[in-house]
Amino acid sequence: METYGADAVVVGAGVIGLAIARALARRGRDVVVLEAQPRIGSVTSARNSEVIHAGIYYPETSLKVRTCVAGRRALYAFLETRGIPHRKCGKLIVALSDGEVPAIEALHARGTANGVEGLERVSAASARTLEPALSPGVRAALVSPETGILDSHAFMAALQGELEDAGGRVALSTPFERAEKTPDGFDVFTGGLSAVRLRCRTLVNAAGLGSEAIARSIEGLDPAHIPVLRYARGRYFTAPGRCPFQRLIYPAPVEGGLGTHLTFDLGGAMRFGPDVEWIDAPDGYAVDPALAPDFEAAARRFWPGARPGSFQPGYAGIRPKLSGPGEPAADFRIDGPDSHGIAGLVCLHGIESPGLTASLALADVVASCLGVE
């Protein structure tokens, strides 16, 4: 088996792995990214709403809110300076019954405490003035002007380009098999057609849905420091025609997610979702057409103009979660040497939404954990 060397090996070429690898490479480290798939960002990073989140939903002291707010600001600057397609379209979170109004008020208070700019609590009448297609059943709304959308694939391509410009490499179709501890770092063994040994000082597990399995394949990592992932599949449906809204429309949040909401891409195509389906393993992305009436009913709560029978299956994504049904939402988890005691190793677990928004800030956290400033 051939042996190669690198300062750092990052496992996973999704948006998080690419952002981390770019950050390390731009700080002078020789970085190799291992990706089991034949393309970058083709699993979790390719199966989301492409929303830039403001930072409203998360507890004030959480890593999620810290990296979401800082990451959002960094992300808008990154997209703007590099000409990557995006739009700061804003969002309305709507109460669709009197019982949901307190949730909107709580989100306003939490978002304000989190430092989210421009949040405004508005009446039902004002919400319908902003978005005339909204249901007359709306009772109140929260306006989030900092929410936006982006071309996530162009963003990931830019991250890869800047990583490579700084001397880093992405090895596609090269699955991580195991890592052995050495006196100076790690021996990382890969599988597939390009089975090699990579000797490195630093190893970063940013494998998303595979982070638990990767962690269990790292020699010397105490199982007590490896969380059990839970998996929540979210399915999306699409609707034809021109989107009647200028802003994204979200209902009050539900257990496990943010509720079935309306987003659109940069071309204006509408999508509705995701729902929350707890599954045992991270496989299967089929969307059952028989679910269309449920999505139509959820959408019609805030958009009465939804045409019956018009919704079509879109796509599905799977979230790697650290909490299960009925449990409080868990924070992002970044385990560095201070946590598990292994020098040069960082494992990221439970990086679900708002991971895309937070990616650049998460990369800085990882670099700090490794003492790479």
Automatic annotation (TrEMBL):
UniProt entry tagged with the keyword Flavoprotein: yes
Signal peptide range in chain numbering: none
Pfam families (UniProt xref): DAO
PANTHER family reported in the protein's UniProt record: L-2-HYDROXYGLUTARATE DEHYDROGENASE, MITOCHONDRIAL
Protease in keyword set: no
InterPro entries from the UniProt entry: FAD-dep_OxRdtase, FAD/NAD-bd_sf
Top-level lineage group: Bacteria
Identification of the protein by name: NAD(P)/FAD-dependent oxidoreductase
Cofactors demanded by this protein: FAD
UniProt keywords, alphabetically: FAD, Flavoprotein, Oxidoreductase
Family per similarity comment: Belongs to the L2HGDH family.
